[in-house]
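Researcher: Quick test of sequence recovery. Tokens follow.
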């Protein structure tokens, strides 16, 4: 996520990305607004880090690129959490 975005933009983009990611992963019923924001913002860091490993300029991507970076990172984060919290049958 681009650091030049303001704090409020991080919360809004992170919240939307976290909410959509929770819908994609089917975990929306367990998550509230605050957890959606946290997942989206952490997903932004995770997605930005992963994209930078592939040489993608994440800082200059703009608003939509930041949103999709957060979304991809949030889906990956929720997938990891679901993998480790899956109940053994």
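Model:
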């Amino acid at each position: 996520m681009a650091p030049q975005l303001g704090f409020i933009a991080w919360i809004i983009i992170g919240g939307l990305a976290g909410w959509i990611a929770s819908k994609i992963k089917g975990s929306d019923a367990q998550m509230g607004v605050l957890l959606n924001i946290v997942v989206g913002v952490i997903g932004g860091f995770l997605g930005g880090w992963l994209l930078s490993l592939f040489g993608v300029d994440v800082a200059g991507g703009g608003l939509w690129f930041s949103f999709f970076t957060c979304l991809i990172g949030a889906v990956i984060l929720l997938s990891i959490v679901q993998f480790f919290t899956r109940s053994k049958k």
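The CA atoms of residues 35 and 44 lie 14 Å apart.
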